Amino acid sequence: MTTDTPTSPARRRRVAVLGATGAVGQSFVRLLANHPWFELAELAASERSAGKSYAEAARWIGGDPLPASVAGMQVLPCDPGAITADIVFSALDSSAAEDAEPAFARAGKTVLTNAKNYRMDPDVPLVIAEVNPQHLSILDAQRKARGWSGAIVANGNCAAIVASLPLAPIHERFGITKVVTMTMQAVSGAGYPGVPSLDILGNVIPYIKDEEPKIEVEMQKFLGSVSGGTIQHAGFLVSAHANRVPVEHGHTVCMSIELESRVEAAEVERAIAEWRGAEEARGLPSSPERALLLSDQPDQPQPRRQVNTGHGMTVVVGRVRADPIFTVKLVAMGHNVIRGAAGASVLNAELMVRRGLLGDR
Ligand code: NAP
């Protein structure tokens, strides 16, 4: 996390986490417990957890201790009437997000969600802070169309975020026409308790429910443009294969990419190495020094070695080389729970503070 935050707001804004007991919810708790701009004021989860202390309700799955300031907080129900904070991070299971998230937005809250439910709605910005911050400009149209005083801002699917970061400079500079992706996704991507150990230990599962269709559409929205209050998707085609592998954290994505014209792999490498992303997403408390890091090692990226690069916010890219069928191929790897979920939402919220899109309550 960057300590130099020149645009620090005058006071910390109170925030709540919905689905605080799950894998992504716990990551939010870690990132927000001592955040310079946000005060973690409220935690909510299902009826199973509501009324209990957080320490009692959440089976803490990190190697680090549960922050003492959070352990005794009472878990609240996911009901807008029970939550006073105006900024709400959602790590809800999609079955609960469907009704809860619009209810919070209707009640005037800004919901930064990780659930899949509203990501592809044309008036919901699907944002990676460094890639498409300008998509936040459709929020006025969203509020008007839905009659909400609050709003929903979405994070992408974790594999789609890891894949889209290196595609951003490539599309910007050379124009992408086709992408074939093959993922090797960590078990933490399935939440807690997630995949049974006897199914995944020493094994590869070549199926993750609903994953491939998400990867096949979200990248075009990230790399699309704003037009008349909605997002015009980028026009390239994506074919995705998704696999679950026995890795704790870190999704690895192998990609073969066809470009509009013949381009040398070295030029693509240069585009990735030089890219810094949107200027307005730099220097925020959760901004990594670099959102993309190009490795020159022939056997990298590797989740065990590099998943925590940039405090889990950097996607490491390697093996950029010519593709005999398409134009170029590469491997990208990023932390699914941080860059692919909670960290990305917190960074989006910081960006919204900088843009003056969040109140100061
Ligand atoms: P998880 O570990 O299964 O946690 C789910 C959370 O939702 C828990 O806090 C649970 O509370 C709560 N919940 C479930 N049913 C509820 C209900 N009816 N009402 C209120 N709360 C309810 O899942 P996760 O991996 O953290 O994922 C959370 C969301 O983020 C999902 O939508 C997922 O698709 C998305 N996502 C996950 C990742 C990842 O890498 N894991 C990445 C990107 C996006 P209780 O403990 O009380 O049951």
Key attributes of the depicted protein:
binds NADP nicotinamide-adenine-dinucleotide phosphate; six-stranded parallel beta sheet; Rossmann fold; alpha/beta; single chain; 361 residues; six-stranded mixed beta sheet; 2 domains; Dihydrodipicolinate Reductase, domain 2
- Rg over C-alpha atoms, rounded to the nearest angstrom: 19 Å
Give me the CATH superfamily of the largest domain. Dihydrodipicolinate Reductase, domain 2
Q: What is the CATH-assigned architecture of the largest domain?
A: 2-Layer Sandwich
Main sheet strand line-up? 3-2-1-4-5-6
CATH structural fold name of the largest domain = Dihydrodipicolinate Reductase, domain 2
Main pleated sheet? 6 strands, parallel
CATH class bucket of the largest domain: Alpha Beta
- The ordered H/E elements are EHEHHEEHEHEHEHHEEEEHEHEEH
Return the average pLDDT rounded to an integer: 96
Question: Which helices and strands, and how do they pair?
Answer:
Blueprint: E1 13-18, H1 23-32, E2 38-45, H2 54-57, H3 68-71, E3 75-77, E4 87-90, H4 94-106, E5 110-113, H5 139-146, E6 151-154, H6 158-174, E7 176-185, H7 197-200, H8 211-222, E8 225-227, E9 230-232, E10 237-244, E11 251-259, H9 265-274, E12 292-294, H10 303-306, E13 315-322, E14 328-334, H11 338-354
Parallel strand pairs: 1-2, 1-4, 2-3, 4-5, 5-6, 7-10, 12-13
Antiparallel strand pairs: 7-11, 8-9, 11-14, 13-14
Helix pairs in contact: 1-11, 6-8
The structure holds NADP nicotinamide-adenine-dinucleotide phosphate.
